[in-house]
Amino acid sequence: MAKKLIITAALCGAGTTKAQTQHVPITPEEIAADAVACAKAGAAVIHIHVRDENGKNTMETEKFVEVVGKVRKALADENLDTILNLTTSGSAFSEELRLAHLPVLKPEMCSYDPGSMNWANSYVFLNTPAFLEKLGTKCQELEIKPEIEIFDAGMIGNVEYYLKKGFLKAPLHCQFVLDVPGGMPGNLETLAYLLPKLPAGSTWSVTGIGKAHVPMMLAGLAAGCDGLRVGLEDNVFWEKGVYATNEQLVERAVAYGKMAGREIATAQEARQILGLKKHQ
Ligand code: ZN
User: Fold this and answer.
1) Ligand 1 centroid to residue 56 C-alpha, Å
2) pLDDT band at 192 (very low <50, low <70, confident <90, very high)
3) Which of 28, 184, 206, 239 is buried most, with the most CB atoms less than 10 Å from its CB?
4) Residue 165 buriedness (CB in 10 A; 0-12 / 13-18 / 19+)
5) Over 90: is that where the pLDDT of 278 sits?
6) Which residues have beta carbons under 5 A from ligand 1 (an ion)?
7) 65 near 104, Cβ under 8 Å?
8) How close is the Cα of 224 to the center of ligand 1, in Å?
9) Helix, strand, coil percentages in the chain from 3-state DSSP, rounded to 5
10) Confidence tier at 2 by pLDDT (50, 70, 90)
């Protein structure tokens, strides 16, 4: 039987605004409602960023506690068992603050971005060596599975380094986030470059940003991905000129996965595939 497909919903990211799409969840209540809708639609993993009162990206622990508390309660009220993956990115914030929510909330997963790059020619997406060592150590202490987000070619080489140094532990789970300007393009050539470089035993998932969203989903399925990531963090459109909701994007990933002969993993199945430790 074909391996089950893990769908991750990336609900809002750090940058998607209401001006871009009214569907993006910004408030704790909106994020919780979208988490429930996406879990019901087939997402095993919900990837979370949080915003302040003005809708601006924040890494304040207090805000994570509020949002994750609301998300966990909303999921529990609907009897939904879902994996939470909290972001650790946030170049504008201190490295301490970027880690501070992890011991408090003990998510099953968090993002781990193994390198820096010029993000869309606008700012430095900063992940210093010291930060990556601290984050790797923290993940092991707290038994949080890092999701290794690969945006650029050099990052896959850094992964080898942190594995060798013991800051990362195999088997890894890598998320290819492709077509961010400044990173690798979302195309087959990129996948063909990255896949043979995955450390042995790794699982992998893929998302394409913007117009690369659907093509990379199809390419990932053709290449036998373990997971697909969709959501308004990465893409706001259903098709050109038509705005999507997170729920619709998850539904489409489920449909394409099934079309490719894959069954969709429940959160419990995803835990087994990814070797996660349930904390709650
Ligand atoms: Zn993210």
Assistant:
1) 14
2) very high
3) 206
4) exposed
5) no
6) 87
7) yes
8) 23
9) 40, 20, 40
10) confident
Cα 113 to averaged position of ligand 1 atoms, centre (Å)? 10
Tens-digit pLDDT profile for residues 38-68: 999 999 999 999 999 999 999 999 999 999 9
Sequence length of the chain is: 280
CA of 93 to the centre of ligand 1 (A): 15
- Interatomic CA distance for residues 73 and 80, integer angstroms: 10
Tokens standing for residue 212: 């690369």
Burial 166-186 (b: 16+ CB within 10 A, else e): ebbeeebbbbbbbbbeebbeb
Name the CATH superfamily for 6-274. Answer: Aldolase class I (3.20.20.70)
Proportion of the chain above pLDDT 70, given as a percent: 99
**Rounded distance from Cα 123 to ligand 1 centre (Å):** 16
Distance 1 CA to ligand 1 centre (A): 31
Strand 117-119 vs strand 123-125: parallel, antiparallel, or unpaired?
Answer: antiparallel
Ligand 1 centroid from CA 259, angstroms: 27
pTM for the whole thing? 0.97
State in Å: Cα 260 to ligand 1 middle: 26
What's the CA-to-centroid distance between 74 and ligand 1, angstroms? 21
Angle, helices 129-142/153-164, rounded to nearest 10 degrees: 60
Read off the tokens for 225. Answer: 């991905």
Please tell me the distance between residue 274's alpha carbon and the centre of ligand 1 in angstroms.
18
